[in-house]
């Protein structure tokens, strides 16, 4: 049986990642499963959730970084099994968010290379779609952000910049940028559908790893 494909939706906050991930899932039906990182339901995920939602719960930047990575590792073998069983796995955030959000803190010593290290060896997606919007007045829309730890305009601007450095650092020919500015949900979906269908119809053998 052909293995399933690993499809990653990455991007900045409020670019419609979760909406499009759900739409891909509906389009593929029971051939696919959708996993979201951080997965807040595991023991490690509960700690991550507390860190994101409770501003009194402090952890060193290095520690929370390693927890986000550990959260991916705890699901790695399950993802592997699903793919081997022929299921397509859609991921809503993964390694690139892990590296970009931590490196954007600009902590001495915690550069992109340091941040990427604990994720080395994780399954690498067969397709990565990076959702981006224009860095303009939309970022003035403070109302649009919620209350979680990273949902601050200044930090989001740094994350945007850091993502492009992360892409320079981690090469991947199977990655595309999707500019969602001024596009409706349906327009974005019409744009990405042929991209993920092409990958799904490929006959790939073996796996690749970060
Ligand atoms: P959501 O809003 O998508 O639930 O993400 N993040 C995410 C990290 O800092 N490191 C990671 O490894 C991952 C996967 C992005 C919650 C926040 O967590 C950030 C936003
Ligand atoms: Mg969020």
From TrEMBL:
Thymidylate kinase-like domain sequence ranges: 9-191
EC number: 2.7.4.9
Gene3D superfamilies, sorted: P-loop containing nucleotide triphosphate hydrolases (3.40.50.300)
Pfam families associated with the record: Thymidylate_kin
Membership in a protein family: Belongs to the thymidylate kinase family.
PROSITE patterns cross-referenced by the UniProt entry: THYMIDYLATE_KINASE (PS01331)
InterPro entries, per the entry: P-loop_NTPase, Thymidylate_kin-like_dom, Thymidylate_kin_CS, Thymidylate_kinase
GO CC annotation, single: cytosol
Example of a GO biological process term: dTDP biosynthetic process
Name recorded for this polypeptide: Thymidylate kinase
Record keywords, A-Z: ATP-binding, Kinase, Nucleotide biosynthesis, Nucleotide-binding, Transferase
CDD domains per UniProt: TMPK
